[in-house]
Amino acid sequence: MSGTTTTTTGGAPGASPADSGAAPEGGRAGGFMSGPVGRNLGLVVALAVLCIVGAITAPDRFVDVDNVLTILRLAAVIGVVSIGMTFVIIGGGIDLSVGALVALSSVWATTLATQAMAEDFHWIVMVFTALAVGAGAGLVNGIVIAYGRLVAFIATLAMLVAARGLAEIIANRRTQIVQNRDFLAFFSGDVLGIPTLVIIFALVAVAGWVLLNRTTFGRRTFAVGGNAEAARLAGIRVQRHTMWLYVLSGVTCGIAAVMLMARTTTGSSTHGTLYELDAIAAVVIGGTLLIGGRGTIVGSVLGVLIFETLGNIFTLNNLSSSAQAVATGVIIVLAVLLQMRFATGSFSLRRLGRGSGAGNPPAPASASGTASGGSVPGGPGGPAPGATTDRPKT
Amino acid sequence: MSAARQRPFRRLSYTAVALLGAGALVAGCTSNTPESSGGGGGGGADAASSNDEPGETVRIGFSAPAADHGWMAGISQAAQAEAERYEDVELVVAEGTNDVSTQISQVETFINEGVDAIVLLPFDGAAMTPVALQAMEAGIPVINVDREFNSPFAARATILGDNYGMGVSAGTYICEQLGDQPDAVVAEIAGIDSLPLTQDRSRGFADALAECGLNVDNRVAAEFTVESGEEAAANLLQAAPQIDALWNHDDDQGVGVLAAINNAGRDEFLMVGGAGSANAMREIESGESVLEATVIYPHTQAADGIALARLIAQDKSMSDLVSQAVPQRIVLNAPVVTAENVDQYIDAAFES
C-alpha cells in the first residue's frame, strides 16, 4: 500500500501538540495535523491488519502495484464524496442526497446536448456541467435547510428522491455512453503511473484538509457544528455558513460524477446507489461525531480505504458478497471500538470527562473544546475556545 | 452595524443568482433526443392468420415494476408496441412500481374496473399471488410474466424467460469455445446475488460447465448497474491474473464490466454477456471487443403476454397449435447471439 502509507503515517503522528504528549507514537511530522492521534492510529491499525490478512491470504496478488492502484482507484470516487460529507457532518448536518446528486450530475453531463457542446468546444463543458449541477442542487439543499429551517435529514432525503427521479427523467432510464475520447483519455489515464482519478482524490483530500484545518471557514465549521448558538453569538453567520457546507458537498458530488463517468464510460441514473450510506459509514468510522463539532479528513480517507480494501480482499479470495456484508458490519463496530480504546488508553482522565460531554451536544465547553483540538494547537480544553478564537476575526 | 450586516447578505444573493444563472445555462443541456432506436420492437411481421383479424374489443390491464434499467424499460415499450398493433386491444398501463403494496392496489383497481384480462409482471411473484387469485376468482384471466406466482391457480397462463437455460447456454458456448482444456480459468460476474433468478443462472452455468469438466474459478456479484459492474470487474481482474472465459449475467452492468476490462488493458479471454442489449450486440458486431457473444433473455415476454391475453379474452387459441385454447405455460428459449447471427437479433434488441 505504498500510496496510502504516506497518508496514514503522516496522519497518525500528526496530532495537536496538546494531545500528542501522551500519545504512544511521539513523532511530530508537521504535515497532516488533523485530530487526536489515538483515533487515527486505531484506523491505521485496522487498515494494517486488513493488509496483513490480504498479504497472507493472497500473497502474490494482493501485494502488487496494480492491485494497490485498483483499490485506490475504486476508493477515489466514494472518497471525494466522503470529503464533502465530512464537512457537512462536522457542521452538524447530514447529507443523504449525495448518491442521487452523483447520478443527476453524471446524467446531466452526458446528455446528447451536453456531449454535442463538448464535441464542438472542449470536454471541459462536461466537467463544468457536472460541477454546476452538483453545486446547484447543493445550494437548493443549503437554502432549504439554512433559511427554510427544515431538518437536514428530511430536506436531503427529499433531494435524494427528487434528484434520482429527475435523473431518470433526463436519461429516460437509459445508460448514456460517454462519446468524447479525449475526456476518457484524460481521466482514465495516469501521471507517472498514478491514475488520474487517484490524483484527483488526493488533491480533493488535501484541499479539504487545508480548508478544514487552516482557514477561518474550517474553524467556523467546527464552531457551527459544536454549538450553533455559541457560534452565532460569536458573530458567525450560521445560516450562511450552513448553506455553503451543502454547496461544498454538492460540488464534491459533481467531481465524483465526473470521476464515475470516466471509470464506467457512462452516465446513468443508477450511479451512486447507496453512496450516502457508504460515505456516512466511512466518515463515522473515521472518527467524526455524527452530532457535529468534531472530525477529521484523514479519518474519513482511512475509513474509505478500509472499506475498499475489505472488498478487494474478499474478491481476491473468491468469497461471497454476503459474507463481505457481514464483515463490513463487524469492521464498522471494531474500528470504532479500536478508536475508543486508543483514545481512552492514551489519556483516560481527560477523555472520560470529554466523553460524557461529547454525547451531549448543547454543552458548549466540551463539544467545541474537542472540535478545536486540531485546528487551534494548544488552544483546546478551555471553555468554548471556538467562540473566543473566532470573535476577533469576524 | 446593520448596514455591514446587510451587505454580505446582498452579496450572498448575488452569488446565489449567479449560481442559479449558471444552472439555467446548464439547464439547456438536458435535451436528450436520442437517435432513432430500433429498440422496443414488439412482434414483427408474423404470418397472417385468422387470429390477426380484429375481434371484439378487449381491455387489458398491464402492471410491471419500475423501468429503472434498460431491460425493464424494454419490457414496457415492447408491451405497448404490441398492444398498438391490434385495433381491438385497449391497454390500461399502470405506472411501474417497485413497491409491492402499490402494485397490489393497481391490480385491485383493474379488478374493480372490470378489465377483460390482466398482464402482470410482479415485482415479487410470491407477494402478488393473493391478489392474482382474487382476480381469477372474479373471472378475470391473469397472465403471469417472468416472475412466477407460487400458486398454479393464480394465473390462466404463465410466460417465463429461462434463467437456468441462460446459464446453460452461456456455459455450453464457453465449453464449445474452450474445447478440451480442463484447467482453463472461468470467471463469472453475477447480478444481485439474493435474487432467485441469479441463483438459477449460476446453477445452470455451473451445470453446463461441469459437462465439459470445467468449473467456475472466480465468481463476484454486482448489482445490475453499470457502476457496480465496473467495481466488481476491476476487483475480479486483480483476483485472476489470467482468465480464459468470463460470463457476465447482465448487459446493463456489462457496460461497466467492459470499461474495467479496457482500463486494465486485458484481452486474453472471451466474454459472454446476458440479456441481449443493443450495445452488447454492437460490440459483438464490431468483432474487436472481448465480448464475443451474449445470451438473450427476451425483453418481449410481456409483449407475448399481451398477445396471449388478447387471445384468451377473445376465446381464441394459438393458431399454429392444433390443440384448442392457449397453453398454460410457456418457457422462452435463451439463444446465444454471436457475430454470425447478430444481424438477426440486433433490430429487436433493447437499448440499455
Count of the separate structural domains of chain B: 2
Put simply, the count of helices of chain B is 11
Globally, the shape of chain B reads globular
Please state the second-level CATH architecture of the largest domain in chain B.
3-Layer(aba) Sandwich
Taking all Cα atoms into account, the compactness measure Rg of chain B is 24 Å
Largest sheet of chain B: 6 strands, parallel
Q: How many domain regions of chain A?
A: 1
- Cα(first) to Cα(last) distance of chain A is 43 Å
Q: How many strands of chain B?
A: 12
CATH topology of the largest domain in chain B: Rossmann fold
Order of helices and strands of chain B: HEHEHEHEEHEHEHEHEHEHEEH
Indicate the overall shape of chain A: globular
Please give the number of β-strands of chain A: 4
Strand order of the largest sheet of chain A: 1-4
Percent of residues in helices of chain A comes to over 70%
Radius of gyration of chain A: 21 Å
Q: How do the helices and strands follow one another from N- to C-terminus of chain A?
A: HHHHHHHHHEHEEHHHHEHHHHHH
pLDDT < 50 runs, ≥5 residues of chain B:
1-5, 35-47
Largest interface: A-B, 56 and 57 residues
Q: What's the CATH architecture name of chain A? A: Orthogonal Bundle
> Structural class, from secondary structure content of chain A?
mainly alpha
Would you give an account of this structure?
The complex is a heterodimer of chains A (394) and B (352). Chain A is mainly α and 394 residues long. Chain A has one domain: ABC transporter involved in vitamin B12 uptake, BtuC (Orthogonal Bundle). In chain A, 71% of the residues lie in helices and 2% in strands. Chain A contains 20 helices and four strands. Chain A has helices at 2-11, 17-20, 37-57, 59-62, 65-90, 98-108, 112-120, 124-146, 152-171, 181-188, 196-213, 216-226, 228-233, 238-264, 275-285, 297-316, 321-346, 348-358, 364-371, 385-390, and strands spanning 176-177, 190-191, 194-195, 266-267. Chain B is globular, with a radius of gyration of 24 Å. In chain B, the strands form two sheets. Chain B has a six-stranded parallel sheet with strand order 2-1-3-4-5-11, with helices on both faces. Chain B has a six-stranded mixed sheet with strand order 7-6-8-9-10-12, sandwiched between helices. In chain B, strand 3, helix 4 and strand 4 form a beta-alpha-beta unit. Chain B has helices at 2-27, 70-85, 100-113, 125-137, 163-178, 196-211, 226-239, 251-264, 278-286, 301-313, 342-346; strands at 58-63, 89-93, 117-120, 142-145, 157-160, 186-190, 216-221, 245-248, 270-275, 291-296, 329-331, 336-338. Chain B contains eleven helices and twelve strands. At the A-B interface, helix 5, helix 7, helix 8, helix 9 and strand 1 of A face helix 1, strand 7, helix 7 and helix 8 of B.
